[in-house]
Amino acid sequence: MKKCLLNIVMGSLIFLGGCSKEGNFEFFEGGSLDIDNPGAFLVINYWAKWCAPCREEIPELNALQDEYRNQVIIAGVNFDQPIDTVLHEEKKVLGVLFPTFKIDPRIYLKLPPVTVLPETLILNSDGELLHRLIGPQTKESIAALISEKLTYEKVQPTFREAG
């Protein structure tokens, strides 16, 4: 009996060791991102194939990703959560160039459900929610919010001890 219990405990530890930590979310395309510490601004966009404003917004998000590649991570969440093959085809048809989360991080971020599409969340490099934007956005509207924070962070004085 003790040996059986020990095997169960050891098996559980091995299984848990293979699980990603709580804030780590995987992409359909492979790889993952730690939402608690993305290391850059994180823009999470909720979209669906049937949503006309979402389709209009996708090129704007692609352009934002291209221009701010070193400062911003763009990630999507497909509102309908289709199976992988359907999602791949939808992304191809719509020209979505940014990765898409497998699981919606919204519950982890303690946010209410999406009620209007598109919706865009902006988190800072520490994973703190800065903005929740409802409705279609442009590259410029999102860039303005991010640039405002980048400028603020750049002008903060840095003190070093004389050495």
Give a structural overview.
Helix content is 37%, strand content 19%. It is of the alpha+beta class and 163 residues long. α2 (52-67) packs parallel to α4. The longest helix is centred in the first third of the chain and has 17 residues, at 2-18. The protein is globular. The chain starts with a helix and ends in an 8-residue tail after the last helix. Keywords: Cytochrome c-type biogenesis, Disulfide bond, Redox-active center.
Protein topology:
Blueprint: H1 2-18, E1 24-26, E2 32-34, E3 41-47, H2 52-67, E4 72-78, H3 84-94, E5 119-123, E6 129-134, H4 139-155
Parallel strand pairs: 3-4
Antiparallel strand pairs: 1-2, 3-5, 5-6
Helix pairs in contact: 2-4
Strand content: 15-25%
Q: How is the main sheet built?
A: 4 strands, mixed
- What Rg, in angstroms, do the CA atoms define? 19 Å
Tally of helical segments: 4
Mean pLDDT: 83
CATH structural class: Alpha Beta
Provide tags for this entry.
4 helices; Glutaredoxin; globular; 37% helix; four-stranded mixed β-sheet; 163 residues
Can you give me a brief rundown of this structure?
With 163 residues, this protein is an alpha+beta fold. The chain has a single domain, classed as Glutaredoxin.
